[in-house]
Specification:
Elements lengths: L1 H4 L7 E3 L2 H10 L1 E3 L13 E5 L16 E4 L22 H11 L3 E7 L8 H12 L11 H12 L10 E9 L10 E9 L6 H7 L4 E2 H9 L2 H5 L5 H9 L12 E2 L3 H6 L43 E2 L20 E7 L11 E5 L2 H7 L12 H10 L3 H19 L3
Parallel strand pairs: 1-3, 2-3, 4-5, 8-9, 10-11
Antiparallel strand pairs: 5-7, 6-7, 11-12
Helix pairs in contact: 4-5
Length: 409
Amino acid sequence: MAVHRAGFRPLLVNELVKYACETLKANAATPRGETEHIPSPGERWPLVEGDVRDVNFDYLWDRVDLLAGGPPCQPFSLGGVAKGDEDKRNMFPEMFRAIRQLQPKAVICENVRGLLRPSFKPYFDYIERELRLPFEERDEDTTWREHDEVLRKRLDEAPTDPKRRYEVVTTRVNAADYGVPQVRNRIIIVAFRSDLGVDINRFKEAVRPRYSEAALIRSMLDGSYWKRHRDVPAHVRRRAMSRLPDPPPKADDTRPWRTLRDAIKGLDGQSSLPPVPWDRLDRREYHLGGVTDHIGWPDARIYAGHTPNELDRPAKTVKAGVHGVPGGESVLLTDEPLPEPVDGAAYPYRHRYMTVRETARVMTFPDTWKLAGPRGEQMRQLGNAVPVMLGEFFARAIATALDEAESKP
């Protein structure tokens, strides 16, 4: 959806997970079948369901502007005398295979920021070098360390064919810094084919953050945030204001982080989601406000390591599932005080689980986007997704960079 909104026309979509496939088919995709074809403008996205290792990309050779994906990079060991043991679920090799079969102008992928921690960093550096030289295919009996040495040597040499080399930009991002009402720390890797002459420094400037926590704090102090939310009870406002830093942060050109309250009230033309009555936390769909998947869920708890989302902050990271609860830490602290105050309570307000629709808003999906499967599977899909607004921001920057490169004399 992100790249589509940025002006790209999806030519092929692949997904492994059953309910994610059902969601794609319910919204924008149709099973492609065995016949390989390039869809016409306006045609539904051709979906190949199943393992990416079984997908052939050759028929799209040199016809693709952007290859977009989120290849899983599972844990692996750097131990051992000769090599580290790579997890067989690591799908970066499949992304490199797709590049070799497509020769796209650009590539984008998202992954967890943990890839940059010291124990992973050597392998991540190798991934970046592979992305710069994806046509230097690794033999099955070659360790990644041995292949890495080959890549290092090749990178020191002048390219014989610039179309087979890519310029790589890795950006650490917090989704909240790009207008997403959620703190979500990730890395986004973008690669441009070397022969295109893309201005890499200009691209880096184009993807710098546009929103900040400091600007949110300033908006609370100057009252502009509270003018948007005039119905916030005074005691909630006082509590939020009491925790702001003193002195306030200096002014800059960023916009305020968007909060969970902003998302529920509606961003970019959305209507406000109706409140979920406390007597309807019963897993039943009441079509509150005419939107789907806005269903109350019982038994939300707050405990150590499972702290709630607060309305006047961006939501916590939406996860695919932790603590045995699909959707993980998706508890929302409301504005309503506890019926019986508890001495020393860290959170003096009633709480409940966020609905699927509230979570979808935090991931910046439109209310018209349908999610297939039971609640746990819907939350898992959202947790595994890239926030649409974040993906669209980077995809638009890529489109602009490609357009500018092609317009050079």
